[in-house]
């Protein structure tokens, strides 16, 4: 019986949320199961009511109605006996049903819908604990798993709680620009579904740092409350397991305005306004859709920029936890010399981490033959995997494994994540595969990754980092 109530409550919450937000009316036209989940008494009452409304036309009709009601009640009764983990698995699997519907919509409309759904909590919440082999500590923070949501999905921090609740070990909001800006004209996101890829030229559409700070401020306060509530009820200090966003870790990715003449000033503004909410900060100098941005990856430019941003962060008042780690996100389209320069700056200035990589302006085979290959913008997804993984490997070797690296680009399975870790990544991020696969992909990737580690006899992620570079 103890296992029943959370399921029933979850269902009730989802349905109530759906009814309330979707402005649907609970009339006799709605399925019986809606009221079934509230209480069993009301369930049978509504079942009787509904049964009354069906005209007792023929014996066949009465039999059919009786059988349907019986099936629904039996189904409901069965659902209420399964344990929470099984029920949670069902919810995640069920999300696959909406993927074909999303695929019919314009990519940006679909994306908007997905973010809104997550912001309203209309997505499943991961209740199953992560396999313990996936837990790791980076920058003094405990991650329950190394799989994160990459920047660009929740640019304005609208859905942090819902997205982290899907079971990501961490997520990154942004890129956020100081002043709100529209980004490039639409259409600016193009699907290449047969290749598991996307071309985008969003150009930092952002509501700006003030809007994001306001949202994170409100959520942050709420999460802190949630955290103390869970500490009280379980006796475990949840805060130590996660970051400022509760049990998950939250990164804030900073960008610059298109019209800004002084890039460093933009990033410093981002640090001043947003770093208090961030478990880590990212200087994004690798988007291909903001003119001149990638030039900031040059040795001198990067050195000047990182120094200024680090100084801005360190001048602020920090508690005993200290300032958030500062990472740099780089492009995959860099020469050997560029990579050596970046590695030298990163090591010399003790940059806390590198994210490798952003999207590519190249069009590797077979993308070059695709109808949309000539659309300007950055390519992400499966065709980016090899390129971004070889840059990751190169950077791991150049930095001698001294700097935590986040591997990003084309990850769509646990095996891909495993390859990134073997190539030098301590943490892994994805965007495009999640956009195609939806919430069900997250538990799948985690389970597959745990299996890869176990099959090769490893006991932890840290043991594997850079295994292919040794
Ligand atoms: C539509 C779209 C928007 C993106 N916006 C950002 C962004 O604002 N900032 C950023 O650093 N990366 C952005 N990215 C890049 C992703 O964070 C990631 O680095 C890249 O897509 C490679 O990962 P993937 O192959 O798993 O998608 C964006 C990617 C896509 C597809």
UniProtKB/TrEMBL annotation:
Domain Dihydroorotate dehydrogenase catalytic, residue spans: 135-453
Residue ranges, annotated region (Disordered): 220-248
Gene Ontology BP term (one): pyrimidine ribonucleotide biosynthetic process
Cofactor: FMN
Top-level taxonomic group: Eukaryota
The entry's keywords: Flavoprotein, FMN, Membrane, Mitochondrion, Mitochondrion inner membrane, Oxidoreductase, Transit peptide, Transmembrane, Transmembrane helix
Enzyme's top EC category: oxidoreductase
EC number: 1.3.5.2
Predominant localisation class: mitochondrion
Pathway: Pyrimidine metabolism; UMP biosynthesis via de novo pathway; orotate from (S)-dihydroorotate (quinone route): step 1/1
Annotated family: Belongs to the dihydroorotate dehydrogenase family. Type 2 subfamily.
Record-given protein name: Dihydroorotate dehydrogenase (quinone), mitochondrial
Species assigned in the record: Carnegiea gigantea
């Amino acid at each position: 019986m103890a296992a029943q109530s959370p399921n029933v409550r979850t269902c009730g919450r989802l349905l109530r949320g759906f009814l309330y937000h979707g402005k649907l009316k609970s009339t006799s036209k709605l399925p019986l199961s809606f009221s079934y989940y509230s209480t069993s008494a009301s369930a049978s009452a509504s079942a009787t009511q509904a049964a009354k409304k069906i005209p007792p036309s023929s014996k066949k009709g009465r039999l059919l109605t009786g059988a349907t009601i019986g099936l629904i009640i039996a189904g409901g009764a069965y659902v209420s006996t399964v344990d929470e983990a099984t029920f949670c698995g069902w919810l995640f699997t069920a999300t696959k049903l909406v993927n074909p519907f999303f695929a019919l919509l314009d990519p940006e409309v679909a994306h908007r819908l997905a973010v809104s759904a997550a912001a309203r909590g209309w997505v499943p919440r991961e209740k199953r604990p992560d396999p313990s082999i996936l837990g790791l500590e980076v920058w003094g923070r405990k991650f329950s798993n190394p799989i994160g949501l990459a920047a660009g999905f929740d640019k304005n921090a609208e859905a942090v709680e819902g997205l982290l609740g899907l079971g990501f070990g961490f997520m990154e909001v942004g890129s956020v620009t100081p002043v709100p800006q529209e980004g490039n004209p639409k259409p600016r996101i193009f699907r290449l579904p047969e290749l598991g890829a996307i071309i985008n030229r969003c150009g930092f559409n952002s509501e700006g740092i003030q809007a994001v700070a306001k949202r994170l401020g409100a959520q942050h306060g709420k999460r802190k409350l949630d955290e103390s509530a869970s500490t009280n009820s379980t006796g475990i200090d949840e805060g130590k397991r996660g970051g400022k966003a509760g049990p998950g870790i939250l990164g804030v990715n900073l960008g610059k305005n298109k019209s800004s003449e002084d890039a460093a000033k933009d990033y410093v503004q981002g640090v001043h306004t947003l770093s208090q909410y961030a478990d880590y900060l990212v200087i994004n100098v690798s988007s291909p859709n903001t003119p001149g941005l990638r030039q900031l990856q040059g040795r001198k430019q990067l050195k000047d920029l990182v120094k200024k941003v680090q100084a801005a962060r360190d001048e602020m008042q920090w508690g005993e936890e200290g300032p958030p780690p500062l990472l740099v996100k780089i492009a995959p389209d860099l020469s050997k010399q560029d990579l050596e320069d970046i590695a030298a700056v990163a090591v010399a200035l003790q940059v806390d981490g590198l994210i490798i990589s952003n999207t590519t302006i190249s069009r590797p085979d077979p993308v070059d033959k695709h109808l949309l290959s000539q659309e300007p913008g950055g390519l992400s997804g499966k065709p980016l995997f090899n390129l971004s993984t070889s840059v990751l490997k190169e950077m791991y070797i150049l930095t001698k494994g001294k700097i935590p690296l986040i591997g990003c680009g084309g990850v769509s399975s646990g095996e891909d994540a495993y390859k990134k870790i073997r190539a030098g990544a301590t943490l892994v991020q994805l965007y495009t595969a999640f956009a195609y696969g939806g919430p069900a992909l997250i538990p799948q990737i985690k389970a597959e990754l745990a299996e890869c580690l176990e099959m090769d006899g490893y006991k932890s992620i840290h043991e594997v980092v850079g295994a292919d570079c040794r």
